[in-house]
């Protein structure tokens, strides 16, 4: 993931925590945010999009 993607994800989390501004969606093109594979969502999507479990494992 690029540095800009990390900043975008962090800004969305900050907006969520502060309840302002109200965001409706966030789309990250290559969201390699967590490489630990400890959550259900990190393991449930494979070979189904631009960036999926397989891509994360490869990276």
Describe the structure using short key phrases.
elongated; 59 residues; mainly alpha; 3 helices
Q: What does this protein structure show overall?
A:
- This protein is mainly α and 59 residues long.
- The chain is 46% helix and 0% strand.
- The protein has helices spanning 3-18, 40-44, 53-58.
- The radius of gyration is 13 Å and the shape is elongated.
- The model has no long low-confidence stretch (mean pLDDT 79).
Low-pLDDT residue spans: none
Number of domains: 1
Number of helices: 3
* Helical coverage, percent range: 40-55%
- Strand segment tally: 0
Shape: elongated
In N-to-C order, the SSE pattern is: HHH
Into which percentage range does the β-strand content fall?
under 5%
Biggest pleated-sheet summary: none
Radius of gyration: 13 Å
Structural class: mainly alpha
User: What value does the average pLDDT take?
Assistant: 79
Cα separation of the termini: 10 Å
Gist?
The chain is mainly α. The protein has helices at about 5-20, 40-45, 55-59.
Question: Could you outline the blueprint of secondary structure elements for this entry?
Answer:
Elements: H1 3-18, H2 40-44, H3 53-58
